[in-house]
Amino acid sequence: MLASAVCALTLVPTAAHADNPIVQHVYTADPAPLVVGDRVYLYTGHDEDASTYFTMRDWRVFSSVDMVNWTDHGSPMSLATFAWADANAWAGQVVPRNGKYYWYVPVRQRSTGQMVIGVGVADSPTGPFRDAIGRPLVGTNEIDPTVLIDDDGQAYLYWGNPNLWYVRLNADMISYSGSATKIPLTTAGFGTRTGNASRPTLYEEGPWVYKRGGQYYNVFAAQCCSEFIGYSTAPGPTGPWTYRGTVMPTQGSSFTNHAGVIDFKGGSYFFYHNGALPGGGGFTRSVAVEKFAYGSDGSIPRITMTSQ
Ligand code: FUB
So where does this one cross the membrane (predicted)? Predict the structure, then answer.
């Protein structure tokens, strides 16, 4: 319990609140934290209403220097940013490079009706973001991009549901070399699912890939539905992956969950979403955060929600 909720649409720090969720004046989902200097930026999706499917048309940005007081920076990117997209402003991630900030997002392409990955770009972490290339970067009719820039400078874009794909991004971050490649979804790599013969592993969606202590992590939404958060580790950016277990068990009224993990000012933080706000549920979610400590072997402990 460490988040101070943002209760008013404001560009100044808000009064402290004791509990999760972090944002309490609007429904948010799919957290993607990014540390820039002494500030953490939190990029989220925006659930508009409790209809029978996701109503998501823009993304939101919040920031904090202390993980207690959060500033609302509004909505610097929306479906309107991408003239070729018409729906589904879903789970993305922002990555800095070349003095710019690249926001990788899944959206529906109007001409094909398929989910593809678009890229926004801005000179500041709070935007405004513009369409970086005027068309989708890559598309397999799948969702949920995450980006790792390895120590040698090679960037990898991962995404997918039901598959898990990766492609090597070029240094410009808006093009790639080679072709999209499927990461083998083995039960050793991603655990064993129950009750769905066509999807034998736990991997569902929402990968969050990062490197820490020489080890590569993929923290992802597992099983369906309801989802829990599991994780795998690997000695390299493309595997081989080993399933390491549950991070956050299924809790609360949201049938999805979505992870984002950072180290910030000496602590480790696990962001997720649930249906904790009044009126909350599967299509009216809220982003929350828990502080945690890695095991001495780099393992991630089991983390439970302080609100649901
Ligand atoms: O928010 C829409 C979709 O729900 C995301 O893309 C998935 O990760 C799940 O959270």
Answer: none
